[in-house]
Amino acid sequence: MPPSPTAPEHDLDTAFAALSDPVRRSLVTRLAHGDATVGELAQPFSLTQQAISHHVAVLRRCGLIEQRREGTRRPCRLRVQNLTLLRTWIDDQRQVWDDRLDALEQHLDRERPHQRGGAGR
Questions:
Q1: What sign does the CA torsion over 97, 102, 106, 108 have?
Q2: What are the two backbone dihedrals, phi and then psi, of residue 39, each rounded to the nearest 5 degrees?
Q3: Signed CA dihedral, 41, 43, 45, 47: sign only
Q4: In whole angstroms, what is the distance from residue 63 CA to residue 107 CA?
Q5: How far apart are the C-alpha atoms of 112 and 105, rounded to whole Å?
Q6: pLDDT at position 103 over 50
Q7: Contact between 83 and 64 (Cβ < 8 Å)
């Protein structure tokens, strides 16, 4: 049985799972331009407001957006600080692979003179 994920790993799992859906990615992109109600978020889609509400609930549960009351309106807002967690993880992975590729390139550079020297014999 695999170990249970730590809180940050769980946050990553739920956020990436939420963002695996193209509608939810579009909602996050829209909210990056400013707050919007579910009705406003639903406008460009051929989905019901109930379906958009479901997507909003998924994004809310994983902490990528928040919803507040303003009288009768309930605008959604992107929680940018939680997107930073995803960006940090992606940047860390990019650094690991950059380091590995740099090490491979250095290894290949060391091997190339041996290959050229041995080819003419």
A1: positive
A2: -60, -40
A3: positive
A4: 43
A5: 10
A6: yes
A7: yes
The structure tokens listed for 31 are 């909210």
For 37-103, the DSSP string reads: -HHHHHTTSSS-HHHHHHHHHHHHHTTSEEE--BTTB--EEE-HHHHHHHHHHHHHHHHHHHHHHHH
Q: What is the CA radius of gyration of the chain?
A: 23
Say which residues have a Cβ less than 8 Å from residue 74's Cβ, sequence separation at least 6: 37, 38, 67, 68
14-38 residue pLDDT tens? 999 999 999 999 999 999 999 999 9
State the amino acid at position 20 in one-letter form: S
Contact by Cβ (8 Å): 59, 27: yes
* Side chain identity at residue 30, one-letter code: R
